[in-house]
Automatic annotation (TrEMBL):
This is Putative fimbrial protein. Residues 260-411 form the Fimbrial-type adhesion domain. One of its GO terms (cellular component) is pilus. It comes from Haemophilus haemolyticus M19501. GO terms for biological process: cell adhesion. Transmembrane segments: none annotated. It comes from the Bacteria.
Length: 411
């Protein structure tokens, strides 16, 4: 029997260094009432000259520490990805946009009510169903998500008048396009400051099959925006004010570089194994015929947090989940063979075959045994047995072989 190896050996792994950048300074957006708009009707028109304003989240770029974890079990209880450090580095922040200064008007207050519009960058998010407030999950790194809330901070004499007393509470963000009432101006200046609260969330408990790349993960947040704010008018009982110019404010992402090293182990000694049962007569195979045992050894070195597992796959029948390896005739692989091979462990159990996958929880994975109590060296031992499948039928002559692979999983 030929034994071929497939180990998926690759080194991959997380942590926190902060790089300071200059603090951004924002200026107020000074509104100007004007009549240079064709709105049809007695609407007030206002503009906020100037370009788009920008602020950032997180406040500065983040590069994580080099963090080691078992390649096939990133949320291992003994060595999980340290999401706590990443969440702490990102931090929960209330980010104030530029303040809109709305001059007072002597006319009806109906022409001076405003709402804030918030747009999220849907290209970088998935939403987690049935969460309140809605959790927005990063597509690039699904272990990380965010919740958002917004509100308006009002100042000036109108801030204490009428419904403005009730418009400064928080609003949960549950969609990509949002608007919320911000305030109404009167005869004196009203100042409206939109505020966005960003809270990072650990979503590692929700992720089960994310494939980690080798090396660093760049979340590319610097190419996306968390939110884009602008102001518009709304009507309480009559015509609404028309905002003819407002470049708005965006909350752009800062770069977050997560450095990962998904740790694996090394095969100790021979990786490929071949056993030959020799030439046998059909009448000789009345009981299992054994050959020299096979030992597969794995050395995990200093990685005490890794548990190596193994799964064997029948190369002649990849869907085989039984304990019998299929044999085929080398000159006619479609010909049915009345023999098979079983792999008997020292404890008397037979190895059952499974899918060719290192993923944790793969069917018929077997946990390797520590060979020495004080060393991170593991072993699985078994003896191949040649068996007759149907004792009442003969075995056709010819050369037969069984082919299997084994896949190591580091958990």
């Amino acid at each position: 029997m030929n034994k071929f190896v497939k180990t998926f050996q690759k080194l991959t792994a997380l942590f926190i260094i902060l790089n300071a950048i200059p603090k951004e300074v924002q200026a107020d957006k000074q509104g100007e009432w004007h009549n240079e708009c064709n709105t049809g009707g007695n609407h007030g028109c206002i503009r906020f000259p100037g370009g788009q304003s920008v602020t950032h989240y997180p406040k500065q770029p983040i590069t994580t520490e080099r963090y080691l974890f078992p390649r096939d079990n990133p949320v291992s209880a003994s060595k999980p990805i340290d999401m706590t450090k990443l969440i702490q580095a990102l931090g929960k922040h209330e980010i104030a946009m530029e303040t809109y200064r709305i001059p007072g008007k002597s006319s009806s207050r109906n022409n001076s009510c405003f709402l804030s519009e918030l747009h999220l960058d849907r290209s970088i998010w998935n939403t987690i169903p049935n969460t309140s407030p809605t959790i927005f999950q990063l597509k690039e790194f699904p272990y990380l998500g965010f919740t958002f809330r917004v509100r308006s901070s009002l100042s000036g004499q109108p801030a204490r008048v009428g419904e403005n007393n009730f418009l400064q509470g928080w609003h949960n963000i549950n969609d990509y396009e949002n608007e919320f009432r911000s305030g109404c101006g009167f005869t004196t200046e009203l100042r409206i400051t939109p505020i966005m609260e960003i809270t990072p969330k650990d979503l590692s408990h929700l992720v089960h099959d994310f494939q980690f790349p080798s090396g660093d993960i760049d979340l590319k947040l610097q190419n996306a925006f968390f939110g884009a704010f602008s102001l518009d008018g709304y009507s309480r009982a009559g015509p609404k004010p028309v905002v003819t110019e407002d470049a708005g404010t965006t909350i752009n992402g800062n770069n977050v570089n997560i450095r990962l090293s998904a740790v694996t182990c090394l095969i100790n000694g021979q990786a490929n194994h071949e056993r030959d049962f020799g030439t046998k007569k059909s009448s000789d195979i009345t009981a299992p015929i054994t050959t020299k045992p096979v030992d597969i050894r794995v050395d995990c070195g200093a990685a005490t947090y890794i548990e190596p597992w193994i799964v064997f796959t029948d190369n002649n029948d990849t869907g085989n989940v039984s304990s019998t390896l299929k044999m085929v005739y080398t000159d006619d692989r479609a010909k049915i063979a009345n023999v098979g091979i079983k792999l008997k462990q020292k404890n008397g159990n037979y190895i059952e075959f499974g899918p060719d996958s290192p993923k944790k929880g793969t069917q018929n994975q077997i946990k390797l045994t520590k060979e020495f109590p004080q060393r991170n060296e593991y072993i699985i031992s078994f003896t191949p047995e040649l068996i007759k499948l149907n004792a009442s039928q003969r075995i056709e002559g010819g050369r037969l072989e069984g082919l299997a692979t084994y896949t190591l999983s580091y958990q």
